[in-house]
Structures are given as C-alpha cells and as structure tokens.
Design brief:
122 residues; mainly alpha; Putative 2-amino-4-hydroxy-6-hydroxymethyldihydropteridine diphosphokinase
Length: 122
C-alpha cells in the first residue's frame, strides 16, 4: 500500500483531480482519521481556496490541512517545528520566498507527518 506522501504527490496538481496542496494532504490522509464523508467533501470544497497561501492566515495549505487533521497541540507544535526548521516559516509566501522547501516538499512533509502521527497514536 502506498504511503500518504506517495498518494498526495500522485494527485498534487495532476490530472484528473488537479488538487492543490491543502486538498492533496486532506485527500491522502483523511482515511487515517475519523472524519466522516460529509465533512470530508465539505472540507475538500472549502480547501479549494487554500492553495498558494489562500487561507486568511496565509499559512501553507499543506501545513494548514495537516494541522486540521492532527490530534492535539503537541502534534501541531511538532509539525510547526519541522516547517520552521526546514523552510523557515509556516506562511506560504515566506516559504516560497526563502525557497528552502518547495510546494512538493511541503505536501510530502505534511502527509508524512500526519501518517506518522496516526501510526504512533494507534
């Protein structure tokens, strides 16, 4: 079975779905959570606006989606640390400006982190 990161990267900006970073992480990781299908569909629609830092906070869409899927402040804090160490920020424009983490890197990192979180959380 492919990893969440592999699934995410198979669909990120690619036909037929052409999902953005936020949708990609949600799509690849939702099965790990207890999210119901109605919430999943509503979130996929909502997250259409969150690519390229489109969320009102300006956060990276992959980071935002992962945070929404994670359980607990400690898990979110861990992901924040990875993004700030690897890319210097969680803000999309800042990530792209410093060019330390590509959008693909952000999607991969977010999906891997969510998957690891749920494997450990059991």
């Amino acid at each position: 079975m492919p990893s969440a990161a592999e699934i995410a990267l198979q669909h990120f900006r690619k036909k037929p779905l052409k999902l953005n970073c936020a949708q990609t992480v949600l799509n690849a990781c939702a099965h790990l959570t207890d999210i119901d299908s109605a919430t999943f569909e509503a979130s996929m629609t909502e997250y259409k606006a969150y690519g390229h830092g489109g969320h009102e906070s300006g956060k990276c869409g992959a980071y935002y989606a992962a945070c929404e899927l994670l359980k607990g402040e400690k898990a979110v804090s861990g992901l924040t640390g990875i993004f700030t160490r690897g890319g210097s920020s969680i803000i999309c424009d800042e990530l792209r400006e410093v060019n330390k983490m590509s959008c693909h890197d952000c999607v991969r990192t977010a999906a891997e982190y969510v998957e690891q979180h749920y494997k450990l959380d059991g």
